[in-house]
Design goal:
By secondary structure, the chain is mostly loops. The protein has a domain of 34 residues. Helices cover 0% and strands 7% of the residues. It has no helices and 2 strands. Strands 1-2 form a two-stranded antiparallel ribbon. This is EGF-like domain-containing protein.
């Protein structure tokens, strides 16, 4: 295995051409870090897998 300078230090990084590691981290140009999750969701909408409500 070649030593990738982007490796986080575990010597187990497998980084693709997009800078994404198998563990979920991504190269941000300076270091490996976990991507920011988009948590802006509409809490009033039911999840897409929710069963439709019965209308009595």
């Amino acid at each position: 295995m070649t030593n990738d300078p982007r490796c986080c230090g575990t010597d187990t990084c497998l980084i693709n051409a997009d800078g994404e590691c198998w563990c979920g981290q991504k190269w941000d140009g300076e270091k490996m870090c976990f991507p920011v999750l988009n948590t802006d969701t509409d809490d009033s909408a039911p999840p897409s897998n929710a069963a439709p409500e019965a209308n009595d």
